[in-house]
C-alpha cells in the first residue's frame, strides 16, 4: 500500500481496503497471545493527537502501537500548547520536528486531518474522526467485525443504519465502506436527521426510511448511532427519540431475527438501544472494540511500511 495518509474511506480503492482489512484479521491473533508484542515497528514513533474526547479509538491506537513495539505518545487538548494560544498547525509542525512516523488525529472540526496532511512533509496522518466528516478507522473495524461473523463473503448484506445520520461521521464512512463492498444500505431515522441531501451522487441506491419497522425488516446488520449533542440542541428529546427509534429485542426478533447489532459507543442504554440487546447474543459491540486494536495495528503498519508486512508467528 503506497498511500501515505488515511483520511477518508473514499480515498481507498477496493484493493487497499481489502489489504487493511485482511492484515487486521491476521493481526487479531497477536492480542490472544500471552506475550502480546511483535517487533514490526521497533524504533518507530506514533503520536496520538486527540483534541476531542475518546476512549475506544485513542486507547486502541495506543495499544496497537505498543503491540507493534513502536513508541506511543498521546497528547490531549488540555495538555497541549493550544490552551496557550498556539495554532493547531504550529502544534503539528512542532510535533513533526521531533520526527514521528505517524500522527493519529481526532478533532471536533471537519477537515483538520486533511489540513495537517497537506502541511506535514515527513509524517503520515491518520484520521481518527474529524467533526461530522468521517471516521474511516471505525468503518474498517466494523467491517472486520462483520467479516469475523459472516465470513469472507462480505457482499450482498443488508445494512440498516439507525439514528442521527446527519451528524454522524461514522455513518459517512460506513456508507462508503459498504458501497465498496457491494452491500445494500438503508438509512433509518427522523426526517430531520435522515434525508437524501446527506447522500452524494454516488449513493443513489441507498434507501431511506423514517419508520423503524420498515427500515430494519429483513436486515442482516443493524447499526445504532448515538443521538448527538447537536440533535439534542435542535430539540430532540431522548425520551421521544427512544419511543420511535430505540432498537429492542422484540422488534429484532420479529423483523430481523438473524440480524446482528453494532454500536460504535459510547452507548446510551435505553435511548438508541436497550440493555437486553447490548448484552444479548446478537450484539457485536465488544467484538468491535477487540477489532479496533487489530485495525489500528494494520493501519499503522500500512502507513509506515507502505507494504503488507508478514506477521511473525
Plain-language structure description:
- The chain is an alpha/beta fold and 313 residues long.
- It folds into two domains: 9-135 and 292-305, Rossmann fold, CATH 3.40.50.1370; 136-288, Rossmann fold (3-Layer(aba) Sandwich), CATH 3.40.50.1370.
- Helices cover 39% and strands 15% of the residues.
- It has helices at 14-27, 56-67, 88-96, 112-119, 136-150, 169-181, 212-216, 229-233, 238-245, 249-255, 275-278, 285-305; strands spanning 45-50, 71-76, 102-107, 124-130, 158-162, 184-188, 207-209, 221-224, 260-263.
- The chain has a five-stranded parallel sheet. A four-stranded parallel sheet has the order 2-1-3-4, with helices on both faces.
Write the layout of secondary structure elements.
Blueprint: H1 14-27, E1 45-50, H2 56-67, E2 71-76, H3 88-96, E3 102-107, H4 112-119, E4 124-130, H5 136-150, E5 158-162, H6 169-181, E6 184-188, E7 207-209, H7 212-216, E8 221-224, H8 229-233, H9 238-245, H10 249-255, E9 260-263, H11 275-278, H12 285-305
Amino acid at each position: 500500500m503506497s498511500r501515505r495518509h488515511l483520511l477518508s474511506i473514499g480515498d481507498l480503492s477496493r484493493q487497499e481496503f481489502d489489504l487493511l482489512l485482511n492484515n487486521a484479521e491476521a493481526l487479531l491473533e497477536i492480542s490472544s497471545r500471552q506475550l502480546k508484542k511483535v517487533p514490526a515497528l521497533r524504533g518507530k514513533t506514533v503520536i496520538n493527537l486527540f483534541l476531542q474526547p475518546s476512549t475506544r479509538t485513542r486507547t486502541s491506537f495506543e495499544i496497537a502501537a505498543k503491540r507493534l513495539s513502536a513508541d506511543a505518545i498521546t497528547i490531549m487538548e488540555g495538555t497541549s500548547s493550544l490552551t496557550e494560544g498556539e495554532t493547531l498547525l504550529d502544534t503539528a509542525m512542532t510535533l513533526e520536528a521531533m520526527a514521528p512516523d505517524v500522527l493519529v488525529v481526532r478533532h471536533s472540526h471537519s477537515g483538520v486531518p486533511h489540513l495537517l496532511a497537506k502541511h506535514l512533509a515527513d509524517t503520515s496522518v491518520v484520521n481518527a474522526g474529524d467533526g461530522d466528516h468521517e471516521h474511516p478507522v471505525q468503518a474498517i473495524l466494523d467491517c472486520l467485525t462483520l467479516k469475523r461473523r459472516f465470513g469472507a463473503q462480505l457482499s450482498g448484506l443488508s445494512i440498516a443504519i439507525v439514528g442521527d445520520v446527519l451528524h454522524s461521521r461514522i455513518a459517512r464512512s460506513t456508507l462508503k465502506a459498504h458501497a465498496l463492498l457491494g452491500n445494500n444500505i438503508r438509512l433509518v431515522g427522523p426526517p430531520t436527521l435522515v434525508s437524501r441531501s446527506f447522500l452524494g451522487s454516488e449513493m443513489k441506491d441507498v434507501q431511506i426510511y423514517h419508520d423503524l419497522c420498515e427500515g430494519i425488516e429483513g436486515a442482516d446488520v443493524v447499526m445504532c448511532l448515538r443521538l448527538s449533542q447537536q440533535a439534542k440542541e435542535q430539540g430532540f428529546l431522548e425520551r421521544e427519540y427512544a419511543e420511535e427509534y430505540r432498537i429492542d429485542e422484540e422488534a429484532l426478533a420479529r423483523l430481523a431475527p438473524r440480524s446482528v447489532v453494532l454500536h460504535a459507543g459510547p452507548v446510551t442504554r435505553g435511548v438508541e438501544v436497550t440493555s437486553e440487546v447490548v448484552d444479548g447474543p446478537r450484539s457485536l459491540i465488544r467484538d468491535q472494540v477487540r477489532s479496533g486494536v487489530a485495525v489500528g495495528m494494520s493501519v499503522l503498519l500500512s502507513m509506515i511500511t507502505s507494504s503488507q508486512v508478514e506477521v511473525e508467528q
